[in-house]
Amino acid sequence: MRDVVSLELVARQLDEQIAGRFPVGQRLRVLDVGMGQGTQALRLARAGHKVTGIEKDCAMLSAARAALAAEPEGIRERVRLLEG
Fold it and tell me: CA–CA separation, 21 vs 2, rounded Å?
């Protein structure tokens, strides 16, 4: 439960930061360093942004790749996942 609340809090804060700095509807290029399982990277891609996610933990990167593979093509083409 705590992880769900934490993810929702991060998502809300991220949305507030984007809304406060960029015009509504502007598509961004986002670098997500230490992206973990890619939850926020995928959420941003679903919102239309292009995302490059970097993760050094192989297990987390594998989880992010699996989650990305389950997304529609239009989302997958907006996300690039890198090990590092």
Answer: 29
